Amino acid sequence: TVANENYEMPPMPPGSKEGILAGLYLFRKGKKGGNKTPVNLLGSGTIINQSLQAQEFLSKYGVSSDVWSVTSYNELRRDGLKAERYSLLNPQREKILPYAAKAFAGQEKALFVAASDYMKIQPDGIAKWLPGELVSLGTDGMGRSDTRESLRDYFEVDYRHIAFAALGRLLAKKEISRELYDKAVSELRINPLKEDPVEVTHG
Predict the structure, then answer these.
(1) Rounded to whole angstroms, how far apart are CA atoms 73 and 67?
(2) What is the 3-state secondary structure (H, E, C) of the chain?
(3) β 24-28/66-70 pair status
(4) Which of 5, 38, 39, 142 has the greatest number of beta carbons closer than 10 A?
(5) Burial of 32: CB neighbours in 10 Å, binned 0-12, 13-18, 19+
(6) Taking CA 11 as the corner, what is the angle to CA 80 and CA 71, rounded to the nearest 5 degrees?
(7) Would you place residue 143 in the very low, low, confident or very high pLDDT band (cuts 50, 70, 90)?
């Protein structure tokens, strides 16, 4: 699979044990940039390395972003559903916030770009507990034997597409100029007319 990749395992960040077990923790905070909207890059498995590359690329263009490692979307969803059920059955008591919501407390109207080797439905499953817009990047469609680089480009989950998604949403929010956007996109070499992997699969 695309996930079969050898790379150096980084040390566990201090204070991250709770998040690792809960399904989400801050992996690397970004340098201060010019964007007002908080940008969070959510990476899973080996794609965390693509999120880190995207963070570096965005930093070159003055965009700050934090990289979060998602260890389990399933755990985050179970926790969210558990919190919702409690609030539904106990409307007279104080609501319990899901872990995903607590992790991003104070980041109202933030931007989230989630990328993984799995289908987009995985990050979509926690969207309602995030305090801002979510862009999901995943491997929807039929896989094919090729290099990891080509596969990740084909499924649009590499660092180029992660950075592209963030820049596009910031442009829509008028937080970056068209000139900066065009310059960055030119460097990323994204083809906006490329066929959708799902349509290629299903015709």
Answers:
(1) 16
(2) CCCCCCCCCCCCCCCCHHHHHHCEEEEECCCCCCCCCCEEEEECHHHHHHHHHHHHHHHHCCCCCEEEEECCHHHHHHHHHHHHHHHHHCCCCCCCCCHHHHHCCCCCCCEEEEECCCCCHHHHCCHHHCCCEEEEECCCCCCCCCCHHHHHHHCCCCHHHHHHHHHHHHHHCCCCCHHHHHHHHHHHCCCCCCCCHHHHHHC
(3) antiparallel
(4) 39
(5) exposed
(6) 20
(7) low
- pLDDT tens profile 91-127: 999 999 999 999 999 998 899 999 998 999 999 999 9
Amino acid identity, residue 168? G
For residue 170 the two structure tokens come to 């910031």
| Structural tokens at position 10 | 């980084």
Residue with tokens 């755990």: 75
**What token pair was written down for 197?**
């992997």
